[in-house]
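Sequence in, structure out. Go.
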Amino acid sequence: MTMAHTLTPTPRTATDVDDVARVIDEDGERLSDARLDPWIADVDVPLLQRLYRDMVLVRRIDAEGVALQRQGQLGLWAPCRGQEAVQVGTAHALRFDDFVFPSYREHGVLHVRGAAPEAFVLSWRGEAHSSFDPYSLHTATPQIIIGAQTLHAVGYAMGIQRDAALRPGVRADQVAVTYFGDGATSQGDVNEAMVFASSFQAPVVFVCSNNQWAISEPVTVQSAFPIAGRAPGFGIPSIRIDGNDALASLAAMRWALDRARRGEGPSFIEAVTYRMGPHTTSDDPTRYRDDADVERWLRRDPITRMENLLRARDAFDGDFTEGVAAEADRLASAVRAACLGSVSRGPLEVLDDVYAEPHAGLDEQRAHFATYLDGFADGGTEAAR
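Output:
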């Protein structure tokens, strides 16, 4: 696949969905795309079913997260409904030893990477700094600071290069992958990360989920033209895909990973999708967008699209759907049980596990915090603990 380093001369907007690469249309019909088809020639019905299954499971995890927050069991939740295709499709292309640096909305990526039920809720409940071991999943703790994970990913990718040069026998074709939203592209971190990635030809893939909204600001406020057009300015090839098409997402990521593994440097994927829910559960999207826009995107639903494709291939029978529904029920129950069964730690324990080794500065903070807590607890510091 050859990607141009310059924008198309035809003016487009950042919200335009007509010029995206796709292989499944809104009705679930399989389309042909010369750029993407070579990367998904091996896709069979079982893989299509796995993509569908994972998108359904992710949507159920997401619905459970929203419900738990509304019930006061989670402090916050960042919904991903409508963005399952780009998350599940790209994650399925990854090798286990590739290292992922996600934002706070990539529940689908965590699921495909093998996250346990508690990994989705304990951090949002405030029980742990990280609810899984990043090295067991080859996935970093989801980043809350907008765009910061792009720098982490490029640093990791440059580390891969140096390991390969300095340590003979180390596998040299590992790739770092980072996910972020359209709003993050206005942050200096993202642009600085692309400078370093291009300058050092680091094996990293940038995945921008353009869900049309940076909290309450539309993407057109930040970008008059497609976001994918920015990457070539840094010397990074890019592709703009339909982010509600799981197969297009799989193909684009395979292309980008292949470039990185062959030493051709970074790639940039803009996946045009839509955030169907609020930015987080503290947000009210009805204040800044109209129902008609939401309805248009509802007709582009990624799960329905894959369902229609499977139906056309006679691969959507009762046994399959019942199995997926049962698995979704089990996973939702496990997520809820992990949340409700967690034991809240004492306030002072927030300072545990901050550093690998204790030091005087941390002891001083602990003592200061204990004194502060004493002002609220009738039973003194012991009660606060």
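Check: The mean pLDDT is 92. The CA atoms of residues 30 and 328 lie 27 Å apart.
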